[in-house]
Amino acid sequence: MNAITQIQDDSWTVAGRTFRSRLIVGTGKYKSFEQNAAAVEASGAELVTVAVRRVNIADPNQPMLTDFIDPKKIVYLPNTAGCFTAEDAIRTLRLAREAGGWTLVKLEVLGEAKTLYPDMLETLRACEILSKEGFEPMVYCADDPIAAKRLENAGAVAIMPLGAPIGSGLGLQNEVMIRIMVENSAVPVLVDAGVGTASDAAVAMELGCDGVLMNTAIAEAKDPIMMAGAMRMAVESGRLAYRAGRMGKRRYADPSSPLAGLI
Amino acid sequence: MEDTLSISVNGQHRRVAAGISVADLALELGLEPTRVAVERNLEIVARSTLGDVKVEDGDDYEIVTFVGGG
């Protein structure tokens, strides 16, 4: 069994839906719809996040995202980016459900614009209401295992802690907390935000995360399509390394060649 | 002005003919009703009823769709 087979045999399930790809990509910040679609293809992602915004009434014939990324082939995960209260997020997702006809959504309620750090009180309140209304929220959250457990009890179908501020590309700043959240969670845990390059995605997967969600790391790369391919391989490599079980760490050297028979 | 209604769509004032449905409104705006979601006075208008719900004077509409986002 080679690595490719081992990757193909692997899958994860969120709210009863099974995916092979563990990479979720955003669809913002691309230079064009064509580049965006090519990056999604190269990433191998089966889930993409999308935003809900007013239609352009001044020019209704402008091309639309759905013309380039087919929602019948790629699952759209509507987000609540830009929402700072539970009410705004709930209103946005009710519209998203009507526009798309599905209940799997990404909930994020932001606390302030500078850090885009989640407001966990509002997030929890929104999660409770949304799950009662039949939504299946995957929830952007702080790297707080206790808050994550509360979200899980409130109906979150996935826990998505930030690894670093949204769009910062700083890489995971909180490996210990992410690992604890993975160990404690009964629902999938995905790092959402903070990944800057391929090794960051691999780190998230090596910690045991079920997946990684990213946008800027791909969209703002000099070659987004090549970076999408790099991220795909990094997520797959990190996942295989996690499953393989890494060696223990030693404080000093341990020779790889036998000492016996040394001339 | 008796035959026209004063409404708001995505924050912009508009006048439309009296008696039209929400589906008619979307088409008048050049929108494909199956590709958008409509909120009327803060209540979702189910897509299946867009053709049945009549536009009324003073209505406030938000019409949204999916765009790129992270």
Q: What's this entry about, in short?
A:
Chain A has 263 residues and is α/β, with parallel strands linked by helices. In chain A, 39% of the residues lie in helices and 16% in strands.
Can you characterise this structure?
The complex is a heterodimer of chains A (263) and B (70). Chain A is α/β, with parallel strands linked by helices and 263 residues long. Helices cover 39% and strands 16% of the residues of chain A. Chain A has helices spanning 3-8, 33-43, 65-68, 86-100, 120-132, 145-153, 175-184, 198-206, 216-219, 224-244; strands at 12-14, 17-19, 23-26, 47-54, 75-78, 104-107, 136-141, 158-161, 190-192, 211-214. Chain A has a five-stranded parallel β-sheet with strand order 5-4-3-10-9. In chain A, helix 4 packs parallel to helix 5 (120-132) and helix 8 (198-206) runs parallel beside helix 10 (224-244). The longest helix of chain A is centred in the C-terminal third of the chain and has 21 residues, at 224-244. The radius of gyration of chain A is 20 Å and the shape is globular. With 70 residues, chain B is mostly beta strands. Helices cover 10% and strands 40% of the residues of chain B. Chain B has one helix and five strands; from the N terminus they run ββαβββ. Chain B has one helix spanning 22-28, and strands at 4-9, 12-17, 37-40, 43-45, 60-68. Chain B has a five-stranded mixed β-sheet with strand order 2-1-5-3-4, covered by helices on one side. In chain B, 31% of the residues are buried. At the A-B interface, strand 4 and helix 4 of A face strand 3 and strand 5 of B. Strand 4 of chain A pairs antiparallel with strand 5 (60-68) of chain B, so a sheet runs across the interface.
